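User: Can you recover a sequence for this backbone? Please restate the input before giving your answer.

Assistant: Of course. Working from this structure:
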């Protein structure tokens, strides 16, 4: 008959083997969970599920241009001409007091236009009869389009510029002016 300590040793070996098997199964399970479940998550959106990052059918148009344009810029209009056009809104200019020298305020600016999905939106800058603009872009499925640009990209000079966004859909046109001027310092 086996002694109590040898029975204890046998049971301890079995418990260690079962414990090791459970640890291995947990590690394999977590790897499988990570690979097959967590990797299939939807890419998070920075605004909401309908805006900013909406992929166009022709892909991104960022290219090597110094003027970054939202991925939706090449998208075809998904709205019909009979859709009512919403007056543009949004942050037409993220910084109303930039400097050409980039100091003390940066001259990197973000512009946003919100209107009817599939409409074309453009932001205009006017000073002393001179007009400059950001390139026209088609809004995404949430009705938004975005630009990231610098003053030099579109040739803005020192002074006060009036800011206006215009949206177009078919024969419809809606405009809105920014309540603040863009004041460019040297």
């Amino acid at each position: 008959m086996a002694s109590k300590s040898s029975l204890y040793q046998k049971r301890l070996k079995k418990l260690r083997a079962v414990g090791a098997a459970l640890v291995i199964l947990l590690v394999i399970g977590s790897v499988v969970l990570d690979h097959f479940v967590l990797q299939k998550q939807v890419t998070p959106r920075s605004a909401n599920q309908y805006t900013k990052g909406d992929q166009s059918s022709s892909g991104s148009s960022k290219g090597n241009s110094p003027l970054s344009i939202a991925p939706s810029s090449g998208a075809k209009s998904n709205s019909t001409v009979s859709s009512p056009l919403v007056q543009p809104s949004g942050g037409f200019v993220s910084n109303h007091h930039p400097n050409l020298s980039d100091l003390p305020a940066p001259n990197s600016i973000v512009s946003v236009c919100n209107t009817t999905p599939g409409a074309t939106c453009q932001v205009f800058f006017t000073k002393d009869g001179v007009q400059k603009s950001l390139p026209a872009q088609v809004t995404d499925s949430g009705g938004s389009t975005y630009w990231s640009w610098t003053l030099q990209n579109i040739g803005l000079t020192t002074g006060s510029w009036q800011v206006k966004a215009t949206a177009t859909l078919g024969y419809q046109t809606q405009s809105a002016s920014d309540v603040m001027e863009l004041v460019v310092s040297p």
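That completes the design. The first helix runs from residue 4 to 37.
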